[in-house]
């Protein structure tokens, strides 16, 4: 009778719960962050500490906001990468490595081949996808846990890319003076490889705010469509939720695992392209001790968004927001890493957010559930009555 | 009676939501006897033993040890009372040695350091005394199932247990190993140990038991002395005479051969034996052929092979004239095979998908439901709504209900709707009514008969003799991976079937 | 050559300690991917202790106290993993990843708070940790590590505790059925990994240098230790061998420029990459009969028997 209404309320109910769970994680994370601020320097904890983190880029608008958007774009992509793999029941801890390969692909096409930016992005995605497909292959055919393989390939990727770029300091992509790859905006030769900004740089008074953020958001929508509207997405989700049932239905789960990891890798690689082709920063091949943080922050983004592609956009903006906010902390009073601390706590909480979700659900929708439970026996009784007559 | 009972379970009642698994059951175990507990699947045997072993707490009734009431809250309490159990699924750590498995939990030690020498001595002595041959240093993963069972038995003996529960111990053994086990049980009896032997194989009861308590559908059906009874008598008590569910159906009119199974053999690598042996039969259009048998006799493996979930070791499958032996699961589905799987949660449904997504699980790729890789959501909804209506699948939120939240009966109805509506030439239905209430069972039986009347071939696998007798036009009994007999339900009796299912008789060349 | 041995031992012992930690956790059934973070926490706690202890204290006490503090910090931090994965039955991999991210942030915040410069660099003296035998300069962690290796072996295979721990990682239902408290054993496994991982973190940071920038964490050593553990098939002496194997490559990377290897013109990147590639190849070949504890990664629920 009221089927449409009921169904809408049910899907609404689950998204409301997810959002509330995420907000709860954020709230607790911020609270702990505030306590840390108080512990370090109680006098400045509120105005110079907490408020600055909350204000994020708006502390120094429009520059800060531009910075936030520039950082959010790749973060959306790595978040999508992790979220996409999650949907197939895989944990892509290898986004960092795929991002690394993507960075190389983008920079090689830009600096060595002087290709237009969209081609560079495409190559970045292909290389990242390749790097993601390998752990997928190992998972599908050797049944080796994708987490272990991804971690290995993170480091193999890092050393490989550093070697290819550095080549003992003689690499053609390497700028000895800056100890980084060549700066794309310092040389007109590379202009076609820079992602256009359509005046955004001017608007935000930065030099790295390009349309990357819109590209990332568009990809998020695309991923949402793939997952929710296509047979391919249907298969991926079936494999992720119940591998046995997927097999029963004739879905090739091996193929889907590899494809899922390849696409996850491509998304991370694309993200690296967005970052380096916006010239937010240059690659430092001498840094052989840490993987790009974008990859791991992608995990936070995905968890916070409950792996929802659209949610990823918002959670990436949030993570970027507080980390830019953290960078505006006065180093006189506080270390800027407070924001990392907060996002770390948030992810830890997200790890068992299912628990929160259950609690919220039972707290908020207890009444609604009751009516739903009642719906079945009631209609059944009606039915028997009719049959009786 | 002032008899010498070591354990008495008096008037035990244990309820689960919607079902009385044990309804006022009394079981009295004498000291030094082998007491069999007989019943069909779902008769409540396991529940009763779980109560005795402290895994469940009964709502009513009490347990007495040597005449004194005792409380058994967990397996540790049971152990302390000298009750040990060989579980149907062994609780052994595979990468540990036999010795380590035996001492785990009661390790002899000095300051926490293991003292295995004395443990080994004790184990070897026990092994010698009861003829339980084991190699204490072998890894459990390397030894045969028979030896694993001996390890489980030694675990009980090592703990000086006096009351030994064997939960379907022969299901996984070869005939020779079964003979050995019987001999070992007799040895325990001589030692004054008391044994509870859960089974549904009549031969074994006749061979080894002193008395037998029979359960049927959670109810106590009496205790009999084996020397005063016969297999036929036990079988009658086990299955009962009263057939409750009657399905109205016309005589079958078998047509062309739809499924032709030729010499199918399936090897199980883990159990290191052929679990399906040289099985051949045909299923014709317009008939229901039932594969009957006790659980674990190769039915599951055969169905996996038939539907493509696992590979055959040998033999040939032909569906409607086409060789499908090496076809993929999807291709078999396209060729006209519908499959209502045994385990609806494992294979049948994606529980966290919506109902509509589960309803198109076997068809989402068909042109009707997709265009250029995009799912036609409106068509899916239309189709799902129609099936829900037509097959009376009840749920909280219609097509959008998460299947996990639905009742088992409605989950099963959704699967049946999905498989039947695909209009398959052959419908494979494996235990389609498992765990369902009477209403749902009736409904599903009607649907299956309707399919037959439409000229479909139906292969039914069932453990329920009632269902087998009611529904099928032809019965094949499977025992130890082989087809041991073919029957017409109109001319056979459940008692006769029971004898074949329990391996007491066999048709054909090897008839003894 | 002496240099190669020195670097190999120093680095190999670190990997071994941490991998032994991971081994205990996984034998109890908990995947500890947070080893990297535990190392960082152990490192920052130990180094901080080192900077605060009075210079007059005897070197032996300095070493002892800082190691104990590091271990304690590691234990406390690992409890976060234990709580999330044992009590709340959270996904162990995700929980561990979160703890890794959190650890670096905590370490940087703490080190910045305590350092004079306001950067994440802490200065300390590593003299108490070092000693020489015949021109070979070693750290106390080498003998300590070897002792812990033997102790680990004995604990795992010769004690009641070890037997029960391994039972919980392989078949918790079986352990439960013979009266073993699975939750308690899993806590014990994670706590041991916290202590060993944290000491490993200190051993990674202190001996080679006198100043450490906590922004780099421990540069993936914890992840490498995971690979060592797998390569070592979850067995103490195999892990020792695997750790040394990995360490040789790492040492080659360090000394490549100054020895005959320079003629190969291989960069340090290639040496760094090798252990990972090697373990990938080995994983692929041994995957069919992996020695991984069977129940690892699966939360144990008393209800489901």
Protein described:
The complex is a heterotrimer of chains A (389), B (512) and C (305). Chain A is mostly helical and 389 residues long. Chain A has one domain: ABC transporter involved in vitamin B12 uptake, BtuC. Chain A contains 16 helices and two strands. Chain A has a two-stranded antiparallel ribbon. The longest helix of chain A has 38 residues, at 3-40. The model of chain A is unreliable at 1-8 and 367-389 (pLDDT under 50). With 512 residues, chain B is an alpha/beta fold. Chain B folds into three domains: 5-239, Rossmann fold (3-Layer(aba) Sandwich); 247-336 and 424-512, 3-Layer(aba) Sandwich (Rossmann fold); 346-423, no CATH class. Chain B contains 17 helices and 24 strands. In chain C, the strands form two sheets. Chain C has a two-stranded antiparallel sheet with strand order 1-4. With 305 residues, chain C is mostly helical. In chain C, helix 5 (141-158) crosses helix 6 (160-170). Helices cover 68% and strands 5% of the residues of chain C. Chain C has a single domain, classed as Orthogonal Bundle (ABC transporter involved in vitamin B12 uptake, BtuC), CATH 1.10.3470. The radius of gyration of chain C is 19 Å and the shape is globular. Chains in contact: A-B, A-C, B-C.
Give, in spatial order, the strands making up the sheet with the most strands of chain C: 1-4
N-to-C SSE string of chain C, H for helix and E for strand: HHHHEEEHHHHEHHH
CATH class of chain C: Mainly Alpha
What is the number of E strands of chain C? 4
Distance between the termini of chain A: 22 Å
SS element count, helices of chain C: 11
Mean pLDDT of chain A, as a whole number?
Answer: 85
What characterizes the major β-sheet of chain A?
Answer: 2 strands, antiparallel
**Oligomer designation:** heterotrimer
Largest sheet of chain C: 2 strands, antiparallel
The domain tally of chain C reads: 1
**CATH-derived topology of chain C:** ABC transporter involved in vitamin B12 uptake, BtuC
Strand content of chain C: under 5%
Q: What value does the Rg of chain C take, in angstroms?
A: 19 Å
Q: Please count the helical segments of chain A.
A: 16
Order of helices and strands of chain A: HHHHHHEEHHHHHHHHHH
Fraction of residues in helix of chain C: 55-70%
Second rung of CATH, namely the architecture of chain A: Orthogonal Bundle
Average pLDDT number of chain C: 88
């Amino acid at each position: 009778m009221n089927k449409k209404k009921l169904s809408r309320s049910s899907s609404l109910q689950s998204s409301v719960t997810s959002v509330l769970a995420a907000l709860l994680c954020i709230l607790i994370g911020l609270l702990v962050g505030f306590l840390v601020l108080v512990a370090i320097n109680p006098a400045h904890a509120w105005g110079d500490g907490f408020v600055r983190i909350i204000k994020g880029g708006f502390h120094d608008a429009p520059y800060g906001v531009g910075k936030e958007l520039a950082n959010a774009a790749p973060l959306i992509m790595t978040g999508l990468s992790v979220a996409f793999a999650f949907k197939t029941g895989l944990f892509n801890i290898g986004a960092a490595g795929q991002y690394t390969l993507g960075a190389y692909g983008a920079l090689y096409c830009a600096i060595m081949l002087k290709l237009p930016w969209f081609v560079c992005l495409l190559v970045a995605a292909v290389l990242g996808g390749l790097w993601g497909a390998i752990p997928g292959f190992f998972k599908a055919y050797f049944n080796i846990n994708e987490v272990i393989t991804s971690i290995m390939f993170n480091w193999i990727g890092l050393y490989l890319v550093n070697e290819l770029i550095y080549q003992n300091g003689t690499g053609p992509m390497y700028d000895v003076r800056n100890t980084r790859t060549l700066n794309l905006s310092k040389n007109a030769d590379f202009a076609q490889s820079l992602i256009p900004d359509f005046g955004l740089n001017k608007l935000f008074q930065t030099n790295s705010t390009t349309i990357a953020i819109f590209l990332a958001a568009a990809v998020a929508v695309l991923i949402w469509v793939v997952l929710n509207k296509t047979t391919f997405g249907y298969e991926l989700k079936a494999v992720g939720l119940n591998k046995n049932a997927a097999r029963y239905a004739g879905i090739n789960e091996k193929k889907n695992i590899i494809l899922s990891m390849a696409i996850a890798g491509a998304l991370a690689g694309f993200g690296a392209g967005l970052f380096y082709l916006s010239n937010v920063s240059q690659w430092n091949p001498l840094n052989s001790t840490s993987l790009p943080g974008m990859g791991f922050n992608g995990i936070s983004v995905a968890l916070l968004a409950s792996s929802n592609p659209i949610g990823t956009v918002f959670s990436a903006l949030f993570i970027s927001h507080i980390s830019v906010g953290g960078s505006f902390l006065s180093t006189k009073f506080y270390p800027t890493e407070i924001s990392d601390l907060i996002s770390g706590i948030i992810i830890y909480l997200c790890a068992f957010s299912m628990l929160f979700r259950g609690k919220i659900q039972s707290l908020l929708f207890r009444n609604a559930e009751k009516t739903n439970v009642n719906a079945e026996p009631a209609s059944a009784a009606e039915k028997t009555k009719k049959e009786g007559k | 009676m002032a008899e010498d009972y070591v354990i008495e379970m008096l008037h035990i009642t244990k309820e689960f939501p919607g079902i009385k698994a044990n309804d006022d059951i009394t079981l009295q175990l004498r000291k030094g006897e082998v007491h069999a507990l007989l019943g069909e699947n779902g008769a409540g045997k396991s529940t009763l033993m779980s109560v005795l072993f402290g895994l469940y707490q009964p709502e009513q009734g009490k347990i007495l040890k040597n005449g004194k009431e005792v409380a058994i809250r967990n397996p540790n309490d049971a152990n302390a009372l000298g009750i040990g159990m060989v579980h149907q699924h062994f609780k052994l750590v595979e990468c540990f040695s036999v010795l380590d498995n035996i001492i785990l939990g009661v390790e002899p030690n000095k300051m926490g350091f293991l003292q295995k020498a004395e443990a080994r001595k004790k184990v070897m002595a026990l092994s010698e005394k009861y003829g339980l041959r084991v190699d204490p240093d072998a890894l459990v993963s390397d030894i045969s199932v028979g030896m694993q069972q001996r390890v489980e038995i030694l675990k009980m003996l090592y703990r000086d247990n006096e009351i030994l529960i064997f939960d379907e111990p022969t299901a996984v053994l070869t005939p020779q190993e079964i003979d050995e086990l019987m001999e070992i049980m007799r040895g325990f009896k001589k030692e004054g140990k008391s044994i509870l032997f859960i089974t549904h194989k009549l031969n074994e009861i006749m061979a080894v038991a002193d008395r037998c308590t029979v359960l049927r559908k959670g109810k106590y059906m009496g205790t009999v002395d084996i020397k005063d009874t016969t297999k036929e008598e036990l079988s009658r008590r086990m299955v009962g005479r009263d057939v409750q569910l009657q399905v109205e159906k016309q005589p079958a009119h078998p047509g062309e051969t739809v499924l032709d199974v030729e010499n199918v053999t399936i090897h199980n690598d883990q159990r290191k034996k052929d679990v399906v042996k040289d099985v051949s039969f045909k299923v014709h259009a317009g008939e229901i052929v039932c594969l009957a048998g006790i659980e674990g006799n190769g039915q599951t493996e055969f169905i996996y092979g038939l539907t493509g979930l696992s590979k055959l070791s040998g033999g040939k499958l032909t569906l409607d004239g086409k060789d499908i032996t090496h076809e993929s699961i999807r291709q078999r589905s396209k060729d006209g095979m519908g499959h209502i799987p045994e385990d609806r949660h494992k294979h049948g449904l994606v529980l966290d998908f919506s109902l509509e997504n589960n309803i198109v699980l076997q068809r989402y790729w068909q042109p009707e439901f997709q265009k250029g890789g995009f799912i036609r959501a409106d068509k899916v909804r239309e189709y799902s709504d129609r099936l829900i209506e037509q097959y009376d699948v009840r749920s909280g939120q219609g097509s959008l209900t998460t299947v996990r939240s639905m009742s088992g009966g409605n989950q099963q109805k959704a699967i049946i709707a999905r498989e039947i509506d695909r209009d398959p030439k052959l419908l494979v239905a494996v235990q389609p009514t498992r765990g369902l209430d009477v209403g749902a069972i009736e409904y599903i039986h009607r649907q299956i008969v309707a399919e037959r009347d439409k000229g479909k071939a139906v292969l039914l696998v069932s453990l329920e003799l009632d269902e087998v007798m009611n529904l099928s036009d032809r019965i094949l009994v499977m025992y130890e991976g082989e087809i041991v007999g073919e029957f017409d339900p109109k001319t056979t009796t459940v008692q006769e079937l029971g004898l074949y299912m329990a391996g007491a008789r066999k048709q054909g060349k090897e008839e003894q | 050559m002496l240099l190669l041995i020195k670097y190999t031992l120093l680095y190999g012992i670190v990997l071994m300690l941490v991998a032994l930690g991971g081994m205990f956790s996984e034998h109890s059934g908990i995947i500890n991917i947070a080893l990297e973070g535990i190392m960082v926490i152990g490192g920052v706690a130990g180094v901080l202790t080192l900077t605060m202890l009075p210079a007059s204290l005897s070197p032996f006490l300095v070493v002892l106290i800082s190691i104990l503090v590091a271990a304690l910090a590691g234990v406390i931090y690992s409890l976060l993993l234990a709580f999330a994965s044992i009590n709340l039955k959270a996904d162990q991999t995700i929980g561990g990843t979160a703890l890794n991210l959190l650890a670096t942030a905590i370490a940087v915040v703490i080190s910045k708070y305590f350092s004079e410069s306001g950067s994440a660099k802490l200065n300390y003296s590593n003299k108490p940790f070092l000693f020489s035998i015949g021109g070979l300069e070693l750290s106390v962690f080498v003998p300590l590590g070897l002792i812990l290796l033997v102790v680990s072996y004995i604990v795992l295979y010769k004690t009641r505790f070890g037997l029960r721990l391994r039972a919980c990682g392989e078949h918790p239902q079986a352990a439960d059925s013979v009266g073993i408290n699975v939750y308690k054993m899993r806590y014990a496994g994670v706590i041991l990994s916290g202590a060993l991982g944290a000491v490993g973190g200190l051993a990674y940071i202190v001996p080679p240098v006198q100043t450490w920038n906590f922004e780099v964490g421990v540069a993936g050593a914890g992840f490498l230790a995971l690979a060592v553990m797998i390569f070592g098939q979850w067995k103490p002496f195999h892990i020792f061998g695997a750790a040394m194997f990995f360490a040789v490559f790492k040492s080659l990377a360090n000394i490549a420029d100054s020895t005959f290897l320079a003629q190969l013109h291989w960069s340090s990147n290639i040496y760094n990459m090798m252990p990972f590639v090697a373990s990938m190849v080995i994983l692929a070949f041994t995957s069919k009969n992996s020695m991984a504890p069977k129940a690892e990664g699966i939360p144990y629920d008393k209800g489901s028997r």
